[in-house]
Amino acid sequence: xxxxxxxxxxxxxxxxxxxxxxxxxxxxxxxxxxxxxxxxxxxxxxxxxxxxxxxxxxxxxxxxxxxxxxxxxxxxxxxxxxxxxxxxxxxxxxxxxxxxxxxxxxxxxxxxxxxxxxxxxxxxxxxxxxxxxxxxxxxxxxxxxxxxxxxxxxxxxxxxxxxxxxxxxxxxxxxxxxxxxxxxxxxxxxxxxxxxxxxxxxxxxxxxxxxxxxxxxxxxxxxxxxxxxxxxxxxxxxxxxxxxxxxxxxxxxxxxxxxxxxxxxxxxxxxxxxxxxxxxxxxxxxxxxxxxxxxxxxxxxxxxxxxxxxxxxxxxxxxxxxxxxxxxxxxxxxxxxxxxxxxxxxxxxxxxxxxxxxxxxxxxxxxxxxxxxxxxxxxxxxxxxxxxxxxxxxxxxxxxxxxx
Length: 404
What we know:
mainly alpha
């Protein structure tokens, strides 16, 4: 299989998985926002209690139930991906078994080497066993994805609440209005929440340069451009209502981008995890030896790839071995593990002997593209740098509930 074919196959499977994940994301977010106790949140913001506000937003039984929905969707997606890969993986393994010397396979049944024809006749049973094994991988993936989503949303909410508290105390913002703003930004990460806060500050500043800079933001609502241009040119200034309308529109744009990015990330990750799980199960079944199978990292080299992923292109490891970036020592259990919108694919090859497989193993190599910082925002992310939010001394940090 060529690099292009591997990427195309991954993309098609992700396209199939993405709608259900996107729907689950939207449903969880709607339930989370609907369950907010606005009275309690208003009181917490008025008191300047950031961590208490986070408890109100994420600590209720309704919030936990909403977040559990994202985990269930990921579990279904990984299982679906496993089903999609199962027969092709087992067919490939059986074909290899028919072309290699039997002694290299080490596959035995009743004391005798298993011929390839027997492997093919056992494909339905092997597929069933592989899918049963994939259920555990799906549960693990769902728990990790749900924990990651929850942590991202909590971190973003912390930035939004801190900004609301600051504007309530310094600018006299009505705490009830601030609470509704926070409710409306639930689902954004820290980078996104800080970006929305920066846009609000720029629009409210009245500074021509800062206003004109908003016209370059990709996620803005173009319907507000005429008002922005007039204000930036010394015409009618933006009113408070104008600012809030533009901020609300921009927030919707960021939210839509983030939701699509998260759904795509989960879909691609589920597709790769399902493929990896199928090969591991094929080895566990004894169809092929694990030390004869290599996994290869296939990066889409179009100038949009991460520096790390650029270096990892064509890196090869034995099945079950982590990929490792020699420049940063970062590791991945499988290609692109949990990296936002990673479009890299993985290609598995069964070699004639363990020695030949080992011969093809190679670590990631090459230099970082143009020296781009490793911690730069994900490709395609809206611009801006997230700001850290300090907790008041003595405040008890909110811990998101564990996936249920």
